[in-house]
Amino acid sequence: MQGKPVIVVGHTALDRVYRIDAFPTRPTKVSARDHREEGGGSAANAAAAIAVLGGRAALWSRVGDDDTGTKALRALERSGVDIDGVKRCAGARTPTAAVIVDAKGERLVVSEDDHVMPMDAGWLPLAGIASAGAVLSDLSWLEGTRAAFAAARAEGVPTLIDVDLGGSILFERVADLTDYAIFSAPAFETFVVGADDEARFDALIARGARHAGVTRGARGYAWKTRDGSLGMQPAFKVPVVDTTGAGDAFHGIFALGVASGLADAACALAASAAAALKCRRLGARAGLPTAMELDAFLLEQAGEGLPRGLLADERLAS
Description:
The chain contains 9 helices and 13 strands.
């Protein structure tokens, strides 16, 4: 598949992932059972998920002019992501993360960002928004997000936000330009006012969202739309090796579904399946599914009562 591209704005990094048996109860030395170095960053991972599935993904981001940035960009190119919109900033350091994963798939992430990375977004190729199917942001770069979303709103291109705890306060700055406001459970419950999920959804819709949702990991994805419809997509049960990047895969494939014109329920179904499949392998990208793998998985799960009308959609499966 190809279709209209999804433009993803935000964070690019390089991850160093270590698998251990268990987290120690006190500071000590621990031997890694497995290790890999791969591209990371929420926006970059989401773009990679789209490209591996066969969609068109263009990343708008910033990295340093160091060896780490070179590695991060090469990883994106191998996944098929368009990196023409990634700026190499002179004198800046590309973000890195150490990801420690135990035998249960639980993880500890220690990230390092260069706080002097230039924030200016005046160089972004905003003219490309007109031909995009959707614009997704992880809210790590407010200036870039605001510029891209404003251009998208002017062109009638749908916008999606991946809101985690770190970006919750920044959401206030782009809420008026956001069509799909998708929160992690901690961010949703901490920063969105409401007595329950539906009240929080209503608060986001009142801010301008046409779709408000919350990801709850193993508890699935719940949402409400501006027309009052409520939805719930259960999580798929898979043997978990590593949950790193599962949320990024979810947001990337959800955005691809929006760009492809799928209904919200179909977007949530495909995104949830992609997130589950990603968890099969160590690292944020090694387990990302192709369209054939995603299609086969959904067909396999149909026996458990999934609505067949949402399976194997020709706009997502190749």
